[in-house]
Amino acid sequence: MPAGLNGLVVVAAGDDHAIALKSDGTMVAWGFNNGGQTNVPPGLSGVVTITAGGEHNLALKSDGTVVAWGTDTSGETNVPVGLSGVVAIAAGAQHSMVLKSDGTVVSWGNTYNGQDVVPAGLHNVSAIGAGDFFSLAVVNQDATPPATILV
User: Looking at residue 141, what is its pLDDT?
Assistant: First the structure.
């Protein structure tokens, strides 16, 4: 980690790089930079949380929009046009996903194992996660058990 870092509120690690969100909403990144994953976009501010994928990163801004950068071998940094209302982000090896305020999920990038395919009718989602080649969603239900994890 670079010397002198303070005020960190979130840290995330990709395959060979790391990023950190500072309390002032700015970021710093370090490590292997073969695809630009440590090149934080100039002027990026208002960030509320971050996540790191294999060789790419996502930043969620306070206005509910997402910024992505780094290696883009499978479209993992191509944030869908008009995407808004985002409340959570997750990044896998080569795919990205978000949870929207309406409980729906949007995913993009590598689909080799179907990791960016959102199941039809998926709604009432309260949390998401991404592994290298899979995605997770916690679905709130009225019946017991109160949550189901879909893989």
Answer: 81
